[in-house]
What does this fold into?
Amino acid sequence: MPFIDLNEIQPIEIMPGIRIRTPHLNQLMLSYLEMQEGAVVPPHSHPHEQGGILLKGKLELTIGDEVRVVEPGSLFLIPSNVPHKAVALGGPVVVLDVFSPIREDYAALFNKYIPTKES
It folds into this structure.
């Protein structure tokens, strides 16, 4: 299944005001992240590399010691194990994140959507 209709995936609220849909393969995960205004992804880190693009809204993004307010079209890269945080500013926010390898915690929420070699 190389094509995925995002509207057919039920979003999961992972924390207040933050919903994700995370289709993935064996080594690559996309995460369609929606945040309500004022929602906060608290400081955290993980062993996965993460890249993303802000599609809608305005986001205060902290990566390591650097803080920036980013707008649609902004790209970001987060190396493995680097602390990061996000705060939705001024309206709803939509981000497309990419993880490699896949985040096992997110994958467990969406196993029925995995288009793997075994499927």
